[in-house]
Design brief:
Structural class: alpha+beta
Radius of gyration: 41 Å
Order of helices and strands: HHHEEEEEEHEEEHEEEEEHHHHHHH
Distance between the termini: 25 Å
Length: 406
């Protein structure tokens, strides 16, 4: 017999089955006894000739298979009915007509619509570069004390350097690089080298994009900032500027934008010359995949019920067929394009999922005997056997007395 203890509500049936097997074996031993009085006692047992332990095992195996298929179907139905934003019916796909302008991610539940996007400016980090200098050539920075201020939107830092006579460009730029990196995390300084000429230059870049990352240098004493060319901004700091569907302009310090009200995430890639367009639609590939899984699970449960029609109560198969009748078949699911209709069929008050959940809950909660086909002749013999225990004994543990006297 297959192990069926993990399946809910079968424990009492197994107890009956174990008792039935034991009692039937006892009757069989007595019927084969060489002693006439023992054979007579075995023949006196009302259902000794009808006892069939194999039928009882088939009842139990059929129940186990049906309830296992029902549990799988219930799991899929609960996934589709999950009210969380990640449920299958809320999944969205994007048809982007301008992939070079923007990358779009639609969050679950995003409104289904077509959008236009205009990008007037991308967010940028400020960049300032010195001229290229021969590394070992004498610096043009003034000999003696040089003081300058590095200003950001958050703080001002004063830097000092005592330039020695005959110091090289490399020494001046290296001091600037190290001093700026130590002074503020808002500005990154690095040295670049021209691979062809061997000349070097210093590059300062804001650590973040947007206007908040702007910085500037000013000489307080000496000329180190002006002599190296750092007073000129090669790329000014700027916020991104864009708008959706011709509405008000939005400004953001980065090019990665979240729009919670629309359920959209945008990665701005380029400035537009004309409005870009993209469409948010249900993720039909994912939705159809889940619905086909649900259909397949219903097929399995229907097949298990049909295969066990001789043993199991036929009303469960009739109820399953009634529930799934209005639900589209597999080929129709591939053509379905109306989310509201599918949602109503699945999760409406009389929809597939609530009806399936109620049916499976009933199958899992009723006593095992309620799942059996009471019109089956073998079941009737089994039921008669159960009733005979009470006829033989009124004790709570009826089987003990009955086994003792058989």
């Amino acid at each position: 017999m297959l192990p069926i203890r993990p399946v809910r509500k079968l424990q009492s049936y197994e107890e009956h089955l174990d008792f039935y097997r034991y009692s039937t074996a006892a009757v069989t031993r007595r019927a084969q006894s060489p002693y006439p009085h023992m054979r007579k006692r075995a023949a006196s047992f009302p259902y000794a000739k009808e006892a069939d332990i194999e039928a009882a095992e088939r009842f139990a195996v059929a129940l186990a298979k049906v309830l296992a298929a029902a549990a799988t179907l219930k799991g899929l139905a609960e996934q589709l009915a999950d009210p969380a934003a990640s449920q299958a019916l809320n999944r969205r796909a994007v048809d982007n007509g301008s992939p070079g302008i923007v990358e779009v991610k639609a969050n679950p539940g995003a409104p289904v619509d077509t959008y236009t996007l205009e990008v007037r400016r991308l967010a940028a980090a400020q960049v300032s570069r010195t001229a290229y200098f021969a590394p070992d050539a004498p610096t043009t920075v003034r000999y003696g004390m040089n003081r300058l201020v590095l200003a950001t939107r958050h703080e001002n830092k004063e830097l000092q350097w005592l330039a020695g006579e005959g110091m090289s460009h490399k020494a001046a730029l290296t001091w600037l690089k190290n001093s700026i990196n130590a002074a503020s995390p808002m500005v990154r300084a690095l040295m670049e080298k021209d691979p062809e000429t061997g000349r070097i230059r210093l590059v300062l870049e804001a650590a973040v994009t947007g206007a908040d990352g702007a910085f500037f240098l000013q000489d307080l004493e000496g000329n180190i900032a002006s002599a190296t060319g750092l007073l000129v901004k090669d790329q000014p700091a700027s916020d991104a500027q864009f708008r959706i569907n011709g509405e008000e302009w939005h400004f953001t310090p980065g090019n990665q934008v979240e729009l919670p009200s629309l359920g959209l995430g945008l990665q701005l890639l380029a400035v537009t010359t004309e409005p870009a367009e993209f469409t948010v639609a249900p993720d039909w590939a994912h939705i159809r995949g889940k619905l086909l899984q649900l259909n397949a699970a219903m097929d399995v449960l229907e097949e298990r019920l049909a295969q066990s029609a001789d043993y199991l109560n036929p009303r469960f198969l009739r109820e399953l067929n009634r529930i799934r009748e209005p639900f589209p078949a597999e080929d129709e699911l591939r053509e379905s394009g109306h989310l509201a209709e599918i949602a109503a069929l699945l999760t409406g008050e009389q929809g597939l999922i609530p009806s399936l959940s109620a049916l499976i809950e009933e199958m899992e909660s009723v006593p095992a005997e309620e799942l059996l086909n009471r019109d089956n002749s073998r079941y009737k013999r089994y039921a008669n056997y159960l009733a005979s225990r009470e006829w033989y004994s009124q004790l709570p543990h009826q089987g003990l007395l009955l086994n003792r006297f058989l």
